[in-house]
Write a structure and sequence with these properties.
This protein has a single domain, classed as Thiamin diphosphate (ThDP)-binding fold, Pyr/PP domains (Rossmann fold, 3-Layer(aba) Sandwich), CATH 3.40.50. β5, α10 and β6 form a beta-alpha-beta unit. Helices cover about 45% and strands about 15% of the residues. By secondary structure, the chain is of the alpha/beta class. InterPro entries: POXB-like (IPR047211), THDP-binding (IPR029061), TPP_enzyme_TPP-bd (IPR011766), TPP_POXB-like (IPR047212).
Length: about 240
Amino acid sequence: MIARRHPVEMGLEGRSSHTVPELLSMTRERRRESYRAELRELRARWLDLLESEIDPSSRPIRPQYIMAVLNDLLDQGAVIALDVGENGWWFGRNFQMRGTQRLIFSGYLGSMGFGLPAAIAAQLEFPDREVACITGDGGFSMVMAEFLTAVKYHLPVRVFVLNNRSLGMIMQEQLVEGFPTWQTELQNFDFAEFAENCGGRGIQVTEPDKLEDAVSDALGTDGPVVVDIETDPRRFI
């Protein structure tokens, strides 16, 4: 698959543990201070833009604010299972990943519903680490019966559902291509009540000023919990 996305002058195939040291031995250090200064400026402008978008007072709760709160409150050693959908866009754009955290995601497979099963597997593999699933209502509703598995084995998986009552990524892709939105609306559902009916913990958040306490509460819960967060699918428009 070398050069599948972009033409290359020379394609290398082999174990990275062997090829990378060989390549490094052929390089010499260059310090371009003007270029490094330009990158620092661009990074600062980008972070300022992300900060300006958060708006902790806006209702429905802005996805940027949800990611900011999760970024502040998730453990430094958390394992994050990311579902496929608009929630993945917001995570990749706005979450500041730490080197001590670990991310599990579907990548190019685009498998909606990946988040919860991945979080359950991560919690079984790392019982002493905080495990969070970040998902949307579309992806979660495909596999939400698996929450019973977390309840059955008392796995303290924290599920954060960005509930915009739509298949948000599909809606945006249709708009970008100039098509009318079609069959992207989802049936309204109370995921917090569902979690309670399963025997776990359910927390519903509709007001931005309640979000931080809700996330802190969920992270301190001894057992599986779903945080159903009302958000808005129109924030890319």
